[in-house]
Amino acid sequence: MISPISILNHLSQLTSQVSDTAATATGIATQAAVAKTPMDFASVLKESLEKVNATQVHATQLSNAFERGDPSVDLGQTVIAGQKASLAFSATTQVRNDLTDAYKQIMNMSI
């Protein structure tokens, strides 16, 4: 059986990876901004979800602009943005699944 501490460490790493992926994809966060934010789990999770959402919104905007025939948006740029959004969402889904599994394991532990 996996210990709860190792599960929490794994979840922390996954949350960090999602945050890094979303920040890289959107270019929103910088190291200075990350260092100034409080490091409680809820705020980190919320910030990560907002970055994933921003990545998806950006990909949708590029896709819509490409479909309208905007000359400033090319196919490669649109596909890359879509893949980044897909990757960020997949990572978020994995974190959600791991959090759910960890919660179930913690609830099944005897006191």
Can you describe what's shown?
This protein has 111 residues and is mostly helical. It has one domain. It contains four helices and no strands. The protein has helices spanning 4-26, 31-36, 41-68, 75-108. Helix 1 (4-26) runs antiparallel to helix 4 (75-108) and helix 3 runs antiparallel to helix 4 (75-108). The longest helix has 34 residues, at 75-108. The two termini are 16 Å apart.
Topology summary:
Elements: H1 4-26, H2 31-36, H3 41-68, H4 75-108
Organism: Frateuria aurantia (strain ATCC 33424 / DSM 6220 / KCTC 2777 / LMG 1558 / NBRC 3245 / NCIMB 13370) (Acetobacter aurantius)
Protein name: Flagellar hook-basal body complex protein FliE
Pfam families: FliE
The percent of residues in helical segments reads over 70%
Taking pLDDT < 50 over at least 5 consecutive residues as the criterion, the unreliable ranges are: none
Helix and strand pattern: HHHH
Which secondary-structure class do the elements indicate? mainly alpha
Domain module count:
1
| End-to-end CA span | 16 Å
Shape: elongated
Q: What kind of sheet is the major sheet?
A: none
Cα-atom radius of gyration:
17 Å
In round numbers, the mean pLDDT is 81
Q: How many strands appear in the DSSP assignment?
A: 0
Count of helices? 4
Instruction: Determine the strand fraction and express it as a percent band.
Output: under 5%
GO molecular function: cytoskeletal motor activity; structural molecule activity
Family: Belongs to the FliE family.
Main location: other
Subcellular location: Bacterial flagellum basal body
